[in-house]
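Hello,

Our lab assistant flagged a job as stuck in the queue for most of the afternoon. It eventually completed. Since we weren't sure the result was trustworthy after the delay, we are filing this so someone can double-check. Below is the sequence as submitted and the structure that was eventually returned. Let us know if re-running is recommended.
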Amino acid sequence: MNSQIKTMLEMQDAMNSKVTKDWRGQNYAWYRAIWIECGELLDHYGWKWWKKQEPDMEQVVLELIDIWHFGLSILLVSAKNSDELAAQIEADLVIDASGADFREAVEVFAEKTLATKSFSVASFGVLMGAAGLTFEQLYASYVGKNVLNFFRQDKGYKEGNYIKNWDDGREDNEHLAEIVQQLDTSRADFRDAVYNALDSRYPK
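-- returned structure --
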């Protein structure tokens, strides 16, 4: 678990650096991105009592992964030592599957985010438990989404040239989910394999 957390921290730093070289010095409002994602999270899970809604758990997991990206960024900004940070995350990330109400867990997490302008790993662990998300699933989904973010940048996302809907009409996220399911996440070249698979499907 510790080595996988280190890998994710390295990947997040690399992604942020690709978008903005001196990203740590920009004072980006990462906490704001997190609580906005919380609203999207609830929309995908469903909260309206006046209409029939079924949780879209695939989209819920994608939103949790996005929050994890922003959370790691917050922690990296203030961290002095990546090894110590990885150890602290490992200690704090207790995935509580005791049956917390998901909507209330999201609200508690959002409230802490707004109050501290930071990222509560412990509260995120409660969210993971309430959503039925394991650490192994978090890792595989995070690596996949991080690679997709790199892929988007390489294909002109920042310049507005990226094609998000591919030849079969499906979005890149859908292709990513399919690719991650087909690959062995424990293989040493998992990141490269995901990137190459995306590249093979991207409209030429």
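-- support follow-up --
The delay was a queue issue, not a problem with the job. The result is valid. The chain has a mean pLDDT of 90. The radius of gyration is 17 Å.
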